[in-house]
Amino acid sequence: MKLASWNVNGIRSVWTKGDLQKFVADYQPDILCLQETKAERGQSAVDLPDYEEYWNSAEKKGYSGTAIFSKIRPLKVANGLPDAIVQKYALQNDGYGDPSKEGRVITAEFNHFYVISVYTPNAKDDLSRLNLRHKHWDPAFLEYCRALEAGRVSLTDDGFGPARKSGKPVIFGGDLNVAHTEDDLARPKDNRGKKGFTDQEREGIEQIIKAGFVDSLRLFVQGNGHYTWWTHWANARARNVGWRIDYFFASQALAGRVKKAEILAGQLGSDHCPIGLELDI
Fold this sequence. Notes:
It is a single chain. By secondary structure, the chain is of the alpha+beta class. It has a single domain (2-279), classed as Deoxyribonuclease I, Chain A (4-Layer Sandwich). It contains seven helices and 14 strands. It has a six-stranded mixed beta sheet with strand order 3-4-2-1-14-13, with no helix packed on it. A six-stranded mixed beta sheet has the order 5-6-7-10-12-11, with helices on one face. It has a two-stranded antiparallel sheet with strand order 8-9. A hairpin with a 2-residue loop joins β8 (154-156) and β9. The longest helix is centred in the middle third of the chain and has 21 residues, at 130-150. The protein is globular and about 50 Å long.
């Protein structure tokens, strides 16, 4: 089974340019996670006949948003995070916006696992959303993943339901807006303490790993030079002066089934490139 994740930075743009069609034709993902769709379903001309489409759009027009396109019909799909987790971690308007209304999470349940497409809030150049991210979003999202894995929360036709007898492994893919280690960006010394490479943001990834989730790419490659996002300035992409801020994490129970994880840097159309994951399922 092949999964892909891509921050498209505007789904209408990548569709109009033909980049999304090209990617789907070339890579043939069974499940495609998208971030920063910046559209509602009815606003987009996207038509992929082989795929079921599921969208979680932001209330703010032309902003944020996630989606899952799947050749396999999910058992259930839910948008956002459960109310209990939202309330526990006080996910509310931080002066910039309400992260619970920004279309940042969509979850699909399949027979053997859950798949989540996630778009983590950006800390902003002035770090004005760093506290939201570090104290609220990161722990809330991790608790949600662990709750699904343990069966403490389930998906229903109306969103989320009570615990079930057993959970399922979780795969989450998306733009986490952080480079985990110095190997995950081309210029760590120049960017230490700046958005995307603060100690607080990096701690969020450490907590994910401590909770037993596996950074799939690092099962296959180590070292630097493996990036998923490049600024438009100074020909950065051609020179590979980039950041790895897009990830596929999987429950430890699935680690042995991961056949391949890769960065698909040849696909253009966005300031991010897609990432791929192949499972023996």
